[in-house]
Amino acid sequence: MTQETRGERIAKWLARSGVASRRDAERMIEENRIRLNGQPVTHPATFVTDGDIVQVDGEPVSAPERTRLWRYHKPDGLVTTHKDPEGRPTVFASLPEGMPRVISVGRLDLNSEGLLLLTNDGELARRLELPSNGWLRRYRVRVFGVVDEERLANLAQGSVFDGVRYGPIHAALDSRKGDNAWLTVSLKEGKNREIRKVMAGMNLHVSRLIRTSYGPFQLGTLLRRELEEVSPRVLRDQLPKATEKAPPAQRAPAKQAD
């Protein structure tokens, strides 16, 4: 059987549809949340072809369309998840009507703000999160406490706080007023709440954290809650592999996902 007649693995198809990363899609299969043509999907080695109907939690999923990427200025007070068990407002519920199904490239926690990349392609999201890209994530950070500039510079050699080893962090003092200071912080690989934990290890309390760039993509002049799509030309220039066309058998007419 040829690739064209066999179709595409369902986890990859779901990832390209913006449902989740391939890994998360496989987890959803294990949780019996996926149906293909009305039948439960029990194995990731299940293939989707043109005309098949795929459902997640009982809702139909539109076939993948061309890869798209958006810059979003996340305000604080929103969680980066589709459904929050605590009922807190989410990034995705705040998006304008008519948006296709999208997922985030990485996350910003509840109290963090700034640039959040959104895409309709789960495979792309996973790829952009990998440290092997070497992409810098840059932040403006306001801290309360006494800043030791020498200790700040030493973070570039890696650090250990509370038994956890952190990779290189480049941090510099921008301005200081009383016990408050603004820092510029850059890193290529971030653990959960890494900047807050590292600053706490230096007796600095983070009162504001704003991501200003993610790789080549900048927050720029985006206003809070503002959303702007990255043009296809810029996407081709920055991520050439992401815009390569899928084989004909893997393409289907685009539909509104949500």
At a glance:
Belongs to the pseudouridine synthase RsuA family. By secondary structure, this protein is of the alpha+beta class.
What does this protein structure show overall?
The protein has 7 helices and 17 strands. The longest helix has 9 residues. The protein has 3 domains: 62 residues, RNA-binding S4 domain (Structural Genomics Hypothetical 15.5 Kd Protein In mrcA-pckA Intergenic Region, Chain A), CATH 3.10.290.10; 77 residues, Pseudouridine synthase (2-Layer Sandwich); 79 residues, Alpha-L RNA-binding motif (Alpha-Beta Plaits, 2-Layer Sandwich). With 258 residues, it is α+β, with helices and mostly antiparallel strands. The C terminus is likely disordered. Strands 7, 8, 9, 10, 13, 14, 15, 16 and 17 form a 9-stranded mixed beta sheet that branches. One of its GO terms (molecular function) is rRNA pseudouridine synthase activity. This is Pseudouridine synthase.
